[in-house]
Amino acid sequence: MTAAAVDLRAGVARVRTTPVSVWLTGLAFLILFWEPITTLGRDWWNDPEAGHGLLLGPLAAYLAWKRGRAPDARAQPWLGLWLLAGAVLLRYMSGLAAELFTMRASLLGAAIALTVFVAGMRQVRHWWLPVALLALSIPIPAVLLNSAAFPLQLQASKMGAAMLEWRHVPVLLSGNVIHMPGQSLFVTEACSGLRSLTALIALGVLTGGLWLKGPVARAMLIVLAIPVAMMLNSVRVFLTGFFVYYVSPALGEGFMHYTEGWAIFIVAFAILGVITYVLGAVERRFTRTVRFA
After folding, report:
1. Is the pLDDT reported for residue 21 higher than 80?
2. Which of 124, 139, 154 is the last residue of a domain?
3. Helices assigned H by DSSP within 18-141
């Protein structure tokens, strides 16, 4: 290694440990990523599809603080600089294209790059749960959201109509519209279940990371969250149609409709908790079996 390379490496190490450089880096980070930070916070607050970010963002910060620094963490300044350069380039390109998802992804990428610079990839792996929660808090692009919502609308309409027929409610299904005598239910994008699906997947990642030990059990929990969300959303469509037909058409909208949605989500969360408990019990039993085999 040449003397110049040694001096450059030593210079990088000194910059990394200078307190002034920390403040300058933080200021530069805020200036460069101010737009994705503010637009992300605005969407968390105003967009119902992104509202779970209000929980996941602060929770990710708390979990990162709680886990602290990895015992074997070692700084990797050169890898961190390369990753940061990629994140800044992505930020620039996404700014030219006015594409919010990649702009916000560059924000997360820059945060990871700075972590690598200071503490290395082992620290990123140590913080895998906060990183995953932050990634899930980034709203899905509208193109993907719309393309995924319509099939879910059709599925929820189909299953809800089948449940109504089972309870002797005369229905005629036309796409995502359920026709009943004197009343029609339109299963909108908000009722597609995509919102509860994304929230349940995020909760599955959280509960799996906190209470399950192995990647297999965690993956099973996330996979099982998908049919749970779809089934319970179909139950919501069924209950709406049932109350509208047998009680009052006013129950298909307004406060009662949204209260019903929250109640269904609480049930889904409880089911997810039961699944987590069962998977944890199976995981512990399997671990003991392997240990004494």
Report:
1. no
2. 139
3. 19-32, 34-46, 53-67, 77-97, 100-119, 121-126, 128-136
pLDDT at 131: 94
180/202 Cα distance (integer angstroms) = 36
Tokens of 204: 């599955």
Burial of 171 (0-12, 13-18, 19+ CB in 10 A): buried
Say if residue 282 is in the same domain as residue 151: yes
List the structure tokens of 206.
């959280």
Rounded to whole angstroms, the Cα distance separating 187 from 189 reads 7
* Phi, psi at 198, each rounded to 5°: -65, -40
- What pLDDT does residue 275 have? 92
Give the pLDDT band (50/70/90) at residue 279. very high
Looking at the fold, whether 151 and 279 belong to one and the same domain comes out as: yes
Q: How many residues does the chain have?
A: 293
